[in-house]
């Protein structure tokens, strides 16, 4: 299960007012049955058969029947074991996300989202309880209650909705890059210029030096990309803009990275909030479209378009809530419409 799937399941929980529970499988990899012959040395503490005679212990080997932690195929064997069991109990494996299993009944449904040995169970109350008992009857499980941490995301269950954030990850990242004591700023980007030659985010000039290897530019880009893709879309544009210069970063670009860190310093607790249906302005999905149009692209990218040197190119995006639209082309600009949720 990836972060996108997990966030979609959270939106399903709040939109349909479902229950959400996290369970952990104890020593999950030990449940997998091996499909190949694997032998290992006789471990200490295991007695040799009497027929072994006086031959040394190193002359013997044992064959594994179950997977162990450390084997390359342990993860696959555990997934196969779990998948066969759930499918045998009436769950359907999702084709698009193999780690999601769904079972529907006349009174409701249950969704099991698997991430290694963590299982998020989502659904109506009775089906959720039945699923939990079904798993406990086959595997040794720990009931961790409501999901509060998964895939590096922290969940806060509130009366009005669910907030997901990465405060702990952000603090750890700031300490890693020695930016945990800086003064915060209010925006993730510094000012830009319409003049390509004055734009601080332009590519490296011929007279500029590339950053030395000791400067962790690529590491910072990777850490920020993960944060932007999970819970901080407000830094997505700035991070992706700076990621374009990963092959030849300069001090200007490193200053841009530090600006993002300073912005995060002052917004550590920010995240994505999923309000319950009664907390939203419109109570029913698809009842009233709530479009969001972004044609600014935070100033776009300075490009040379012939006579109008330095003109900015933008890619407009329109987001709607619960309503599908086809893609439409008008003049020279193509608009893409994305629906945040499937049409009811």
From TrEMBL:
Pfam families linked to this entry = RVT_2 (PF07727)
Per the record, the domain of life is Eukaryota
InterPro entries to which the protein is assigned, alphabetical: DNA/RNA_pol_sf, RVT_2
Q: What is this protein called?
A: Reverse transcriptase Ty1/copia-type domain-containing protein
Q: Where is the Reverse transcriptase Ty1/copia-type domain?
A: 6-190
Annotated region (Disordered), positions in chain: 293-312
Origin organism of this chain? Answer: Rubus argutus (Southern blackberry)
């Amino acid at each position: 299960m990836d972060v996108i799937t997990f966030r979609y399941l959270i939106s399903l929980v709040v939109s349909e007012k479902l229950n959400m529970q996290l369970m952990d499988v104890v020593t999950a990899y030990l449940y997998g049955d091996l499909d190949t012959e694997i032998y290992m040395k006789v471990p200490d503490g295991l007695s040799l058969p009497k027929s072994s005679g006086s031959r040394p212990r190193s002359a013997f080997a044992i064959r594994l029947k179950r997977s162990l932690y450390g084997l390359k195929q342990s993860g696959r064997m555990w997934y196969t074991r779990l998948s066969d069991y759930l499918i045998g109990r009436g769950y359907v494996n999702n084709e698009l996300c193999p780690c999601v299993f769904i079972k529907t009944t006349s009174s409701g449904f249950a969704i099991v989202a698997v991430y290694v040995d963590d299982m998020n169970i989502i659904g109506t109350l009775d089906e959720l309880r039945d699923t939990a008992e079904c798993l406990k009857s086959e595997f040794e499980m720990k009931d961790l209650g409501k999901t509060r941490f998964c895939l590096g995301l922290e969940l806060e269950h509130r009366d009005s909705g669910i907030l997901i954030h990465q405060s702990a990850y952000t603090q750890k990242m700031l300490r890693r890059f020695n930016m945990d004591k800086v003064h915060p700023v209010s925006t993730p980007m510094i000012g830009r210029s319409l003049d390509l030659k004055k734009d601080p985010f332009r590519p490296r000039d011929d007279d500029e030096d590339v950053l030395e290897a000791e400067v962790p530019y690529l590491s910072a880009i990777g850490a920020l990309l993960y944060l932007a893709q999970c819970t901080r879309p407000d830094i997505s544009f700035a991070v992706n803009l700076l990621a374009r210069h990963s092959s030849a970063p300069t001090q200007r670009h490193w200053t841009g990275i530090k600006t993002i860190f300073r912005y995060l310093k002052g917004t550590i607790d920010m995240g994505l909030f999923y309000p319950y249906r009664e907390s939203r302005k419109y109570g029913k999905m698809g009842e009233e479209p709530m479009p969001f149009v972004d044609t600014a692209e935070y100033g776009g990218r300075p490009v040379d378009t012939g006579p109008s040197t330095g003109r900015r190119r933008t890619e407009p995006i329109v987001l709607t809530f619960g309503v599908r639209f086809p893609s439409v082309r008008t003049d020279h600009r193509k608009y893409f419409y994305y629906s945040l949720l499937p049409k009811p």
